[in-house]
Amino acid sequence: MAKIDFIRELDKLKTPVWRVIQNYLPDKVPPGHYDMVREYPGRQGKYFRPGLVVLGTQLFGGDPRKAALTAAAMQTSEDWLLIHDDIEDHSEQRRHKPTLNRLHGDELAINAGDALHIIMWKMLGENARLLHNEIGWKIFNKMSEVLLTATEGQYLELQWIREKKVFVSQDEYLDMVKRKTAFYTVIGPLQLGAILAGATDREIRQIEDWGTPFGYAFQIWDDCMNISTPSEKQGKETGGDILEGKRTLILSHLLAHCNQKERRHIQDIYLKPRARKTKRDKDYVLRLMATYGSIDHAKKIALEFGNRSKEIFDRRTAHLKNTKAKETIRAGIDFVTNREQ
Amino acid sequence: MAKIDFIRELDKLKTPVWRVIQNYLPDKVPPGHYDMVREYPGRQGKYFRPGLVVLGTQLFGGDPRKAALTAAAMQTSEDWLLIHDDIEDHSEQRRHKPTLNRLHGDELAINAGDALHIIMWKMLGENARLLHNEIGWKIFNKMSEVLLTATEGQYLELQWIREKKVFVSQDEYLDMVKRKTAFYTVIGPLQLGAILAGATDREIRQIEDWGTPFGYAFQIWDDCMNISTPSEKQGKETGGDILEGKRTLILSHLLAHCNQKERRHIQDIYLKPRARKTKRDKDYVLRLMATYGSIDHAKKIALEFGNRSKEIFDRRTAHLKNTKAKETIRAGIDFVTNREQ
């Protein structure tokens, strides 16, 4: 089989999923409110999560056309979560444009995120009704579980900032990432697809085995890109995570390897509120992360998780037909540790 | 029939509804997160909205026991909305205690509100499934419509602050209140109850006729209490609306009747961010609101809306049996313009 371009595969399913989303985005009074509600959906990310919903369906022999509404809800969940995350993280850029909170203030942005959250459940309710059987409810409940788990991960991450805990161990970091990213970005979407296809409970459960390292690889690589990919490519400010005070494996490695004076300085920088951090602060940390090989270290770990995921994937899916979907998911695992966006 | 104590009637249904809510509030890791999620539900407001769900069911001859889960979801919607509203309004007190954002910061509070929002839809999904027929879906969709409408009202109110529009006309104010309060606090809960009881589409629609003035009376009286009820009684700071810059009928009346110098001073005060407003600023506005009879004016309008609501209520429900629920709802309309909390 020819080498699969994962991003091109994701692109192919954008149009049908976006068409479903558009049907659910109201265009009514007050227009300013609904313009805000439509803003992030209209900026269209990579469609990684809805892509995994559809691929998960196909992996287990299901009909991808039946997955459009679930995939649309998955993408919409990302859009409302991002509106709120961008406020919680004091982010300034999202998908090459200013964040909604920077454009309209935190107050209106929280409210617009809530509206989009309400719309997402409308999709999931109608989805459950259309599938009119146990599968519809399983999807509804899976989404509830996955989203609640994502709020747990977000809590852990925000709480480190609030309690001024700068050094986190790899175990603490991975526990947070498992909730915030692995469940939400990888395991959840794939399980939703598997449920749609009528996979067995065992098959659905086992997605976690390879989805967890897949999710770790995704997040760790994401952290590396934030530090090293030029802003034009990633659509966010390079090193934004340093300004936002994100606790990453890169930071943990750096704190464990730098000297005491540097450690104290780094901690001081991380404990400043975003508004008080200077470009010099950011460059200081960026330079040390490069000097101590902390970025390379994190990339190595991401690649290891990616490889582990592929190994387990091969074993866990050996009983399934060798379809294009199977190859594409495997290409997706490779993709997350090779991408620049 | 003996005079009905509306608050006592609401109190009676607190325990069964709270029991349902408790079943849905997770008690798991990370505990700090779920402590935040449980905080507002545990503070228990008046249970005005779940009360109207149950009374709406009884008014149309339905079984109140079937309404417990819908009522629980209604109450939970108030709790997550309040978590977010308190951030958006920069409120400091809620139900006699500091707001969640003051206790834990905006970031974690937004996230806790999202978790509670997710839990509310879990209730509504299981409710739809338990009622396993059209009624369950009608309730699900009604809640979606009512909540989305509430975000529209919230947008209008926040947008006035953002665009520095201090004077709003009575029509503009009522359009905002119709979305933010009348639909969400009165019409929605009553319609949910009516749907549960199997009321006709016409009956459900006509609730709007008396529910709208009922909702206006509720909000206008609420605005008056905020200005004139002692803090210990209302559980929030007296005059908090002035600090939060809320545009009310009281303010509009004052701006239309004071002299130019006073008007300029009031506008300056309203345009300051909350943190820069002083006690002196608040007292200045409070004194003028009393001097120009603006509070009395608003109370009069609230009473007029209450009377209009009762008249229409009597006509629209003349065909229904004279039950205790009917009397209690009527007492509820009286209650909203006679309460001190």
Please provide a written account of the structure:
2 copies of one chain form a homodimer. Helices cover 75% and strands 1% of the residues of chain A. Chain A is mainly α and 341 residues long. Chain A has a single domain, classed as Farnesyl Diphosphate Synthase (Orthogonal Bundle). Chain A has a two-stranded antiparallel ribbon. In chain A, helix 2 packs across helix 6 (106-130) and helix 3 (48-59) crosses helix 8. The mean pLDDT of chain A is 96. At the A-B interface, helix 2, helix 4, helix 6 and helix 7 of A face helix 2, helix 4, helix 6 and helix 7 of B.
Give me the secondary-structure topology.
The structure is a homodimer of 341-residue chains.
Chain A (H helix, E strand, L loop, with lengths): L5 H19 L6 H13 L4 H12 L8 H21 L4 E2 L2 E2 L1 H5 L1 H25 L3 H29 L7 H27 L4 H28 L2 H4 L5 H4 L5 H9 L2 H12 L7 H13 L2 H23 L7 H13 L5
Antiparallel strand pairs in A: 1-2
Helix pairs in contact in A: 1-4, 2-6, 3-4, 3-8, 3-16, 4-6, 4-7, 6-7, 7-8, 8-9, 9-15, 12-15, 15-16
Question: Can you describe this structure in just a few lines?
Answer:
Chain A is 75% helix and 1% strand.
In whole angstroms, how far apart are the ends of chain A? 25 Å
Class inferred from helices and paired strands of chain A = mainly alpha
Rg of Cα set of chain A: 20 Å
Number of domains of chain A: 1
CATH class annotation of chain A: Mainly Alpha
Strand order of the largest sheet of chain A: 1-2
Name the assembly state: homodimer
State the fourth-level CATH superfamily of chain A: Farnesyl Diphosphate Synthase
Largest interface: A-B, 45 and 45 residues
Low-confidence stretches of chain A: none
CATH topology of chain A: Farnesyl Diphosphate Synthase
- Average of pLDDT of chain A: 96
- The number of helical segments of chain A is 16
Q: How many β-strand runs of chain A?
A: 2
Element pattern of chain A in H and E: HHHHEEHHHHHHHHHHHH
| Proportion of residues in β-strands of chain A | under 5%
CATH architectural designation of chain A: Orthogonal Bundle
The level of helicity of chain A is: over 70%
Main sheet record of chain A = 2 strands, antiparallel
